Amino acid sequence: MALIPQEEINELRMQVNIIDVISSYIPLSHKGKNYFGVCPFHEDHSPSMSVSEEKQIYKCFSCGAAGNVFTFVQNFENVSFIEALQIVAQKYGFPLSASIKQIKSDKNTKYYDILDITTKFYQNNLKTEFGKQAMQYLEKRGLNKEAILEFNIGLALNSNNSLTNFLKSKKYQNEDLDKVGLVSIKDDIANDYFINRIMFPLEDSNGKIIGYSGRIYYETNAPKYLNTKETLLFKKGQMLFNYSRAKPYIRNEKKVILVEGYMDAIRLYLNGIKNVVAIMGTSLTKEQTSLLKKLNAKIILCLDNDAPGQKAIYEIGKELKNNNFEVEVIKLSNEKDPDEYVLKEGIKAFEKNLKNPLKYLDFSLNYLKQNKNLGQTVDLADYVNAVLKDLEKETDEILIDLTLKKLVTDYNLDYDILKSKLKNLTQEEKVKEIKEEPKVKNKINRYNMACEKILFYMMNEPKYVRMYQNNLVFLDNLNYREIAKEIIYYYETNKDINMADFVSFASSNERFFPDVLHIINESDDNLEENVFNDYLKKIKVKNKEKTIKELKVNLKEELDKNKKMEIAMKIAELKKGSV
Description:
Layout lengths: L5 H10 L2 H6 L5 E3 L2 E4 L11 E4 L4 E4 L5 E2 L1 H9 L3 H11 L8 H4 L5 H19 L4 H9 L4 H6 L3 E3 L5 H8 L4 H6 L3 E4 L2 E4 L4 E7 L5 E7 L9 E3 L15 H11 L1 E5 L2 H9 L5 E3 L7 H8 L4 E4 L5 H16 L4 E3 L8 H8 L1 H9 L2 E2 H8 L9 H15 L5 H15 L3 H22 L9 H15 L1 H10 L6 H17 L4 H8 L6 H10 L6 H29 L3 H16 L3
Parallel strand pairs: 12-13, 12-14, 14-15
Antiparallel strand pairs: 1-2, 2-3, 3-4, 4-5, 6-9, 7-8, 9-10, 10-11, 15-16
Helix pairs in contact: 1-24, 3-4, 12-15, 14-17, 15-16, 21-22, 21-23, 21-26, 26-27
């Protein structure tokens, strides 16, 4: 951060309003003097994040997340602090004096570079004589040269070591290639992991290539798809295909189409439906759910039109509803998946489906009827109980009422019994949520609490910095002492201090920065001088007790009678409070 002056960071921070920035990511509601929203940094089911417009600080009362506008963007976007500055600066048209390229340093840079070079190698292969058959396959699948360039599609040659030898010529070692999943090593001999496959690069949420999916394009008994093995960069369950490309379109339209395979996402994207991401499977992980949370958008599920795909829609939709998403479903006819549907029926037909999605509840009502004979009592009871279970997370009271009335009409059931059963299920779920609420606030002794309160006051107003200096108190905890020292340094350098700017200043110190955020999260906004003085007195008492204890040890060990007398007098004076 040295290349961006603190004054410039402070100026940017003052030009933006934390409410505007955070509300562009998550919905906020105004209550009292603060704003509240569902925290995106843990599985929050009720608004537990408070955002102060006055302090320009946010904090979550459940998981302990806290900070200023830059740390929010940093954690939400999963980027460095410097990159967060850049994002905020670009969003508000603020010219930074240094670019990310000048200041960015990544411990994994070497591995990203290897994957970038590999992607270019694969792309070049596609243009050669060896790539003719693969190109014909891609053209047959409706992927033209523009599409190939857009998604960086390439070709792994029909060779055991073409890529390995190429990368070795660039001075990369087998160990490096293995770490990013490009080779298989046996008896110290490295061979290409991907052989004779069309290569689709896989990117993380920031658009960096982290792995590949290799697709067979000729007749063979080999598996149709082969993904990069789990590596230090690639974790399949932590990425969504097309996420980085789709982000701006999703945020603009406030909805995201969730498909199963990357070809489904590519097909829709190339046909102008750009707010689409693929899970590359039939299940949704917690990490993928977190990525979707960051988009603050309605989810439209459009998975394969077969039994596993429909089951996945039900299971994924249920999980998304449990995480407070608004969920709708597109159910395509005839064709197996969106890719095939668009190729056969055309994009206009898909857009027509997109304009008329099913509410997830309507989909689940029909899905739950499958393989059940509702004329039989046991099957009907199972069906009704499953429907009520799904209604637990529904927030639309009208939709709930209509669904209950439909069950009453269709199956001659008692409305009050259904309503009572649903109420009991909802209460049980609330009790469960309370029990599962993150417990992050550990017990803290009074001395440490006094230290933290002193530091909190000092971060907020200059007068408390001066009072701390004038009282010459000593904080036992090394991190607390360092924070106090940094606060004093910041104040003396800038002739002023406020908490939001101090957060930016302290963010580069990985050792004590978590303590800074913890102190902010644990403290209320009330600042009273007499309370601050009380905290100082607690520290002084503790300092005195520690000094007396040390003197008593010295007294026992001292042999000189005169010196023993001096130590005894010091102890007496300290106990009387005269020193």
